[in-house]
Amino acid sequence: MKTFYSASSAQQIDQYAIQQLGIPGILLMKQAGFFAFQTLQKKFFPSTSNTALKTISVLCGTGNNGGDGFIVAQLAKQAGLTVHIYLFGEANQLKDDALTAYQELQAIGITTTPFNFATHQSTLQQSDVIVDAILGIGLDRPVTGQRFNDIQQINQLNRPVLALDIPSGLHADTGNVLGAAIRATHTCTFITQKIGLYSFQGSDIAGKVHYSPLYLKTNAFQSQTPIAYHHSLDHWLAQRPKPPASQHKGQAGTVCFIGGNHNMMGAIQLAARASLHTGAGLVKVITQTEHTIALTQQQPELMCYDQSQLNAQVQHANVIAIGPGLGLDDWATQCYQAALNHPQPKVMDADALKLLAQTPQKQNNWILTPHPGEAAQLLNTTSQAIQADRIAAIHALHKKYGGIIVLKGNGTLVFDGEQVEICLAGNPRMAVGGMGDTLTGIIATLVTQGLSLWNAACLGVSLHAHAGDQVAQKNRTAVLPSELTLQLCSLVK
Questions:
Q1: Contact present, 450 and 459 (Cβ < 8 Å)
Q2: Strands across the sheet with 282-286, in order?
Q3: Residues of the chain with pLDDT under 70
Q4: Alpha-carbon gap, residue 237 to 460, rounded angstroms
Q5: Facing residues of 164 across strands?
Q6: Domains in the chain and their CATH numbers?
């Protein structure tokens, strides 16, 4: 399990370790620097490589992040590397542990140089690795002016970069680039995991993330409340009840899908096929009359009906999944309103969410699965506002609509009103139409199999993302939802 804390909590934990546990701040700084230097050696120039690490450039700010950089520079110099240290700001701005680390540099004969890109471009270009220790996790406003220009120019060098704690310019809590951010190859983060490294733009900026708690014991973290967790796929798979040997199709669960309006048959088909491949015993589809025969011909296991059979078929279902290809016309509205009149748990996506946004209501017995655009409609805001703070957005969605919220996107979030789960699997090739319909089918089936809404949502998101990763490993230019569905069988087994 991974536990994520806000930037503010990380700073509080750091101070608790120093003030209450009596751990010197300079020791924590040296442990951070040592972990970063080890990562530098192992990840950029592993022992199996035929090349050697010779020269690094360390870019240091005047805060504690810069102090971490000074420690890395010390260790690199002692290891025989050529080290160039560039200071962003004035040396007289340094204080406390960062000042101590700076003074130690001077004591072993290492000097720092005020940063000037035009002057130092050639040296930076020739460095094997650039170490980013300019700005830390406390940044909460856009980078502007000369600092903005410096970061942009550093990125244009296309050199390998190791970022310390967080890439400079990246918001630790949201994953937003604040004006400009150093694009890292690897990031070493310390004391706590930062959700911004995995959310929104964070994973593009941070590269491969390496984490060290700096040897702090559990009691150092107990004073702060995490903002999110991450559990493995195996953890969520273990929540599934084991089916009895005598199980029949009725016990395996019945899902009723509602959708597939004119010209949108594919969406409901993808959702229903995903349900079958996740293990549903019976899958029923309420759709437009002209689609019923075609759907059955393409997937004989599906039981397809027109709108006139909705109430009769829903009565025998364990869960209702509504939204894929539903549309927004009178037919869609009638189906939507009829579905809401039934007491079964519901999984709602796509057009069902748009209809919900028109007449908001709050229920505890549903799972809502919006992408940022749909979330924006549900909250009467913009997708940019949703992405600017995904944690705040999912809290607002739950407050307004209740139930379980699945906020899709890079670093999909699941929230039940008490805890947030973040999914760290998935890849950009999954940005294909129909992918959300597939997720709806997976989650709905897991609900029928006896999982709580929370466990079904978390397992469904994890299965969906891991299946997408497995398909992507086959060198596909895109991950098609139909391919992902076939991959589900091996993962669920």
A1: no
A2: 2-4, 228-230, 420-422, 413-415, 404-407, 366-368, 346-348, 319-322, 254-258, 282-286, 303-305
A3: 48-50, 244-252, 476
A4: 10
A5: 188
A6: 2-225 (3.40.50.10260), 233-492 (3.40.1190.20)
